[in-house]
């Protein structure tokens, strides 16, 4: 069995030693997801709730990938590459159905058991814009699936024998003006995970049956010392509330890489892609954590990659990185949120509710996971937020503000600041054109 090792040159990222154990680990991974499909989901729960997350929220795709320029009448053909039990697929297919958006969500996964759960969830929702193929990413070139407008690959690349090759396959399957939503694990926010993974690889080697390995993990967790770093980490709870599948995927997964922000950006760049955004963008702004003029002056001299690395090191709680990416040949233009005919839209939380979260001194306490940061907004933002309904244009909002004593010149300043801040929090975006 190959040992896990930490390469200091990769600043804490984990990699497999170069022994011929890829097949053994890959076989163990396949057995894991047949025995314990992840994440653990009950299809009957679809009757009472829709799980919402990132990437692959329809409003995020419209904004971060297509820059609010792709008409909603244009069909959206989607590939979920490694759909698991279907969280992203069900969310996006449901969003498209509710918005009467044409297109199809194609779910690809090599686990028959995981696909059966995703199918049952789709059936509960009576979704007709979704279909399923049992296959792996490396089989895509032989499947003749055509090109996709959007590809989701969430929580998959870090488990593959060759993430770079897999991402290149996906890039080759992407339409010229399309984009992807990616998620990978991050090392610092998962402190304690890899220590325990190392211990369990000794006590429950990947050659053992999944049921045997899970039994060992449960015994270890029963007696885990109070000093174990995992006990101190509140950034995730799969081992506490995720059932057998959650515990197994967190602590027994036979291949688990973690990427710092710079290494994730390298992975994206090397595949011929470019980053449209890291979510939430403000999370990667270290100035939010360091409200000191001298420190902020130093930060302002750093490039984006350096600032992202600094923010990750300072915050310490980033357990994942989520990115929207496009082809590096895609001449994307930033959305024009100042145009009077553009239509702002709340991603999820209604503007009235977000305004109510503001303090009397116009601060929005915002949670980046377990870290709460005070975000300053203009005083007028409290009145603007309830007006953002996905129907009113920027010009409409400006007219309403004018009746409240805010002239056009003042509105432009206030709107620029309000939108820029709330966009960086992934809370206010622009609606795609009709």
Automatic annotation (TrEMBL):
Gene Ontology molecular function: any one: methyltransferase activity
Xref: InterPro entries: Methyltranfer_dom, SAM-binding_MTase, SAM-dependent_MTases_sf
Compositional bias of kind Basic and acidic residues: 10-27
Example GO biological process: methylation
Keywords, alphabetical: Methyltransferase, Transferase
Ranges for region Disordered: 1-41
Protein's name in the database: Class I SAM-dependent methyltransferase
Every Methyltransferase domain range: 77-180
UniProt entry tagged with the keyword Methyltransferase: yes
Signal peptide range in chain numbering: none
Source species: Acetobacter thailandicus
């Amino acid at each position: 069995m190959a040992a896990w090792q930490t390469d200091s040159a990769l600043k804490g990222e984990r990699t497999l030693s170069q022994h011929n154990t890829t097949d053994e680990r890959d076989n163990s991974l396949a057995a894991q997801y047949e025995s314990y499909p992840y994440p653990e989901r009950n299809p009957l729960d679809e009757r009472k709730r829709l799980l919402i997350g990132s990437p692959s929220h329809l409003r995020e795709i419209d904004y971060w990938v297509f820059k609010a320029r792709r008409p909603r009448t244009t069909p959206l053909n989607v590939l979920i590459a490694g759909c698991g039990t279907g969280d992203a697929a069900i969310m996006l297919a449901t969003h498209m159905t509710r918005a009467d958006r044409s297109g199809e969500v194609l779910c690809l996964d090599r686990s028959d058991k995981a696909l059966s759960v995703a199918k049952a969830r789709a059936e509960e929702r009576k979704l007709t814009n979704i279909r399923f193929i049992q296959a792996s990413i490396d089989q895509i070139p032989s499947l003749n699936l055509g090109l996709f407008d959007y590809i989701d690959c969430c929580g998959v690349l870090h488990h593959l024998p060759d993430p770079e090759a897999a991402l290149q396959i996906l890039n080759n399957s992407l339409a010229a003006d399309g984009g992807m939503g990616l998620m990978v694990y991050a090392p610092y926010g998962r402190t304690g995970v890899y220590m325990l993974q190392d211990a369990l690889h000794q006590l429950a080697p990947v050659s053992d049956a999944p049921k045997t390995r899970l039994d060992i993990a449960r015994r270890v967790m029963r007696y885990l010392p109070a000093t174990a770093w995992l006990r101190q980490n509140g950034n995730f709870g799969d081992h506490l509330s995720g059932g057998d599948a959650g515990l197994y995927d967190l602590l027994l997964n036979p291949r688990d890489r973690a990427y710092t922000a710079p290494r994730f950006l390298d992975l994206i760049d090397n595949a011929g892609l470019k980053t449209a955004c890291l979510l939430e963008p403000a999370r990667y702004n270290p100035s939010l954590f360091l409200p000191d003029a001298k420190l902020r002056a130093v930060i302002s001299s750093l490039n984006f990659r350096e600032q992202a690395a600094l923010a990750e090191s300072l915050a310490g709680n980033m357990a994942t990185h989520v990115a929207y990416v496009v082809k590096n040949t895609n001449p994307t233009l930033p959305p024009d949120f100042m145009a009077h005919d553009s239509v702002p839209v709340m991603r999820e939380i209604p503007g009235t509710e977000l305004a109510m979260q503001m303090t009397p001194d116009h601060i929005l306490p915002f949670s980046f996971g377990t870290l709460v940061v005070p975000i300053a907004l203009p005083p007028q933002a409290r009145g603007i937020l309830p007006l953002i309904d996905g129907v009113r244009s920027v010009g409409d909002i400006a007219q309403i503000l004018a009746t409240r004593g805010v002239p056009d010149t003042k509105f432009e300043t206030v709107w620029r600041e309000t939108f820029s801040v709330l966009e960086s929090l992934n809370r206010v975006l622009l609606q795609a054109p009709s």
